[in-house]
Amino acid sequence: KRDGMMGNIYSMGLALQALGSTKMFYAPREWDCAQAFSVVYDHDYRQPMAIAQVLPALVGKSYLEAASLKCTTSTRTSLRLRPSLSQMPSTLEVHKSLIQVHYSIINTLQGKHFSDTISVQVPDGSTLLKVLQAAEEEKPEVFCFQTEQTSWGPMVVSIHGLAGNSDDRTYWQFFSSTDALQEGVGTYKPQDGEHIQAIFSTY
Question: Is Transcription given among the entry's keywords (predicted)?
């Protein structure tokens, strides 16, 4: 679905591993994996867990085959790929212009309903987590939030004192306009003028 996307960008690695290892069961019809792999190629993976899950599919090897792999060649290759000091960005290159992001928090499910919006400025290339932090700095009584560290990066568990609950099947879901984000707050990078909404939701 969605031009090769299976689930979301986080589930792609496991989905490709599963489909690749069971391709013999697709006979007489072969699985056309081109669209799915194009999704992976176009995404800039940054989280170690996501990279670890997608790499086996990209190299055509499963984790079960790892014990038989010879690492000498790959080790030499990785050493050659390390950037030299001359390739590292200078301090001047790190400086980035500011962008404006509109951020809303919305709760129409529990307790006292609320809907608040703020516009903040962050350096271009900042993650959504930086946007949340900037909003909290400007209005901590409204845009306070809490995160928990997971193997997939930081996960927002509470906003404005309202926390998700597995018993109630509630959580904070993030949207860009009306589209649900496929990345977490630690990796998603909003664009200038983008409107991010955190909506208290059920699953």
Answer: no
The predicted model scores a pTM of: 0.61
Binding residues for cyanocob(III)alamin: 8, 53, 181, 203
Q: Is residue 160 part of a domain?
A: yes
The pLDDT tens digits of the residues spanning 99-142 come to 999 999 999 999 999 999 999 999 999 999 999 999 999 999 99
Give the CA angle between residues 22, 26, 28 to the nearest 5°.
145
- Binding site as annotated, residues: 8, 53, 181, 203
Range of the structural domain that residue 26 is part of:
11-66
Note whether 103 and 56 are same-domain residues. Answer: no
Residue whose C-alpha is closest to residue 74's, from 55, 54, 91, 88: 55
Q: 193 with 110, same domain?
A: yes
The C-alpha atoms of residue 81 and residue 143 are separated, in whole angstroms, by 42
| pLDDT tens string 45-84 | 777 777 777 777 777 766 666 556 565 544 444 434 344 4
